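Input chain follows. Return structure tokens only.
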Amino acid sequence: MVFVFIVAIVAGRRAHLKVLAIAALALCFVVGSLAWVARNEIQVHRIEYVDSVQTDAVFVASMNGGPTHLKKIAFQLLNQPTISAADRAQ
């Protein structure tokens, strides 16, 4: 979250925004990030900035070739309403 805040300030300074506009930009960056963290807490019951299952699915989907066993497992996990800790670890 500190990195997100710093990036917002740097972006505002590079765009030559006024102090109030930089503060508003930083607030938007932080609120947006916190909303995503809250979404992960609600949906996957873990406080994290990214959802590891979605990250794995993007990686698997970017591989060349037909549907592999790993791809099938990733898509099954994504379609489940809840995912157990054991399935996530696997």
